[in-house]
Amino acid sequence: MSAAPTDLPPGRFVDRELSWLDFNARVLDLARDARRVPLLERVRFLAIFSSNLDEYFMVRVAGLKRRIRAGVAVAGASGILPREAHEGILARVRELVDAQSATFTDVVAPELADAGIRIVGWPDLTDDERARMETLFAERIFPILTPLAVDPAHPFPYISGLSVNLAVWVRNPTTGARQFARIKVPTNLTRFLDLGGGRFVPVEDVIGHQLDLVFTGLDVLTWSTFRVTRNEDLEVEEDDAENLLHALERELLRRRVGRPPVRLEVDDSMAEELREVLVAELDVDPREVFAVGAPLDLSALMGLAAAVQREDLSFPAFLPKTHPELAAVETAQPADLFKALRGRDVLLHHPYDSFATSVQRFVEQAAADPAVLAIKQTLYRTSGDSPVVDALVEAAEAGKQVLVVVEIKARFDEQANIGWARTLERAGCHVVYGVVGLKTHAKLCLVVRDEPDGLRRYAHIGTGNYNPKTARTYEDMGLLTANPVITEDVARLFNHLSGMTAEVNYRRLLVAPEGVRTGLLERIATEIDHHRAGRPARVRVKVNALVDEALIDALYRASAAGVPVDVWVRGICALRAGVPGLSDHIRVHSTLGRFLEHSRLFWFANGGEPAVGLGSPDLMHRNLDRRVEVLVSLTNPRHVAQIGGLFDLAFDDGTAVWVLRDAAWEPRLTDAEGEALTDLQSHLMATLPARRGEQR
């Protein structure tokens, strides 16, 4: 990246870690939004808030602490030193955790009770319920508990990350000696035990009130729950692919033991002496201790919401439809995608368009078609029972050439991806791990087919993973095409990934790490030239995160030149919006809702002939410098209009969004009269087919 410009002021970047916490605060907003979000969905957003925060501590806070321990005293782009950043994070997290606890305890739990769904404690159980829980404890829980005492013969036990535990003080009635003990709540039990009639009790509460049976002959003085979060970020030195595989397997073993704590959560009623033991034995900074009023680990509410299954308290059922241009070639049999793609490119928008009848069907048809000679595929994250992997195995076993680029360093999916790699290798697929030093994050599939007029290639380029499960809940886009220019580009990129070339030049693709940042900077500069010449000029970007300083500075310069800039971001945004003299012409909106906004889109007015693209990269250093990422340009006028229409909706005054003003996010969910604004995703569910028809 270039040196810091002298024409832009210092302090123009928001701290990325605090910006992420602002994103999670918007998730918490959804848990409080009774007007737009049904009750059980609000319960799920409380769970998502917790799981998001867990990963944030395991990776981002862990990395920050590693820099502090290493003595790094260099400020980030925001000008904040690592130690100051850590202190700011802990203070902000404390505010958010308190707000989450209050939301659950004071708002959501009472509303659940009004709807006949209650989370109760042991004292609230009826005699019959207690009897049933005592039986359950004796038959199903007690046999798998492992109480661990701490004394000179028993050192303090290793506490696994994210497990819920009971800290217990016991006393020997003969000697009066007191002792600390720990019990891990079994993870093979549902967290909230179903009592029937819409009543649930936390499993730790059942265990806590049966401790006399666990510590026989001892007096149980007090007990409380706690939870530790550990550093889970992997550090693997790369050499060659096979060494990388073994090194990663060793590092995954280390992840299970020996990782330092980065957070300690305790029940806010925990006795001070229990807390002091935990802080001392775990070597946790007291500032990293969070006393929680609600039950620990509210991510478990996801299981509760699934167990209740109340349609009246959930989002209306939604069934993705086959894309109309693929449905047109359906008969009694599934659509012939190759026939459809010989006539036109197809722009997919998931989950509104079915993944199963488009992308999944594309791979499955390729595997089963005798005319297909080869399939090349990237895999970053996929589901546990992936039909895409099954199709690739089927293709290899049928004698087709199958190349799979498996990213085994995909965070928290490393173990699963190692398993996929082994499975694919055993089936005869050529499995490679991409380019040494880079993660392969691009979403690509290439099919080579022998047809009467010669070999023809077909490709899919997307913004999301080849995961049928997340495709139902993540908003993503993709292009299915037989365009020979694009498919040749994709073929050359796969040759690069498999180690045959050092390709950096493509006609319809921008490829990181060499080309995405450079290509986007050139596009932004071109918009400035168009504006100065009096031609239509505008920049529109949709990403999950905007952090890259060079691109943010380019957007600031575009704004200073008078070019309108619209940034549609789900999560982190290090840019300050609407600051006089810096970003007067920049608007930043965020959309959160039923589906996780995940697509990455780029739209430039280009003097009246819009230049539009989609692909895998977010505008972050890791994506642009340390990953293989792909953007493909779209030229079909209907596709260009469809993406332009999405930006129009996201920036329409009647659409519910969060608006960034300088560095602060403000919800804009109702109009001046208090009426709810249009929910973008609900609008698309209802109108996308009609809007497509208008664009034909």
Automatic annotation (TrEMBL):
Pfam families per UniProt: PP_kinase, PP_kinase_C, PP_kinase_C_1, PP_kinase_N
Gene Ontology molecular-function annotations: polyphosphate kinase activity
Posttranslational mods: An intermediate of this reaction is the autophosphorylated ppk in which a phosphate is covalently linked to a histidine residue through a N-P bond.
UniProt xrefs under NCBIfam families: poly_P_kin, PRK05443.1-1, PRK05443.1-2, PRK05443.2-2, PRK05443.2-3
Residues that hold Mg(2+) according to the record: 381, 411
Biological role stated in the UniProt entry: Catalyzes the reversible transfer of the terminal phosphate of ATP to form a long-chain polyphosphate (polyP).
Catalytic activity from the UniProt record: [phosphate](n) + ATP = [phosphate](n+1) + ADP
Family: Belongs to the polyphosphate kinase 1 (PPK1) family.
Principal EC category: transferase
Superkingdom, natural source: Bacteria
Full protein name: Polyphosphate kinase
Tagged with keyword Transcription regulation: no
InterPro entries for the chain: PP_kinase, PP_kinase_C_1, PP_kinase_middle, PP_kinase_middle_dom_sf, PPK_C_dom2, PPK_N_dom, PPK_N_dom_sf
Swiss-Prot/TrEMBL keywords: ATP-binding, Kinase, Magnesium, Metal-binding, Nucleotide-binding, Phosphoprotein, Transferase
Organism field: Propioniciclava soli
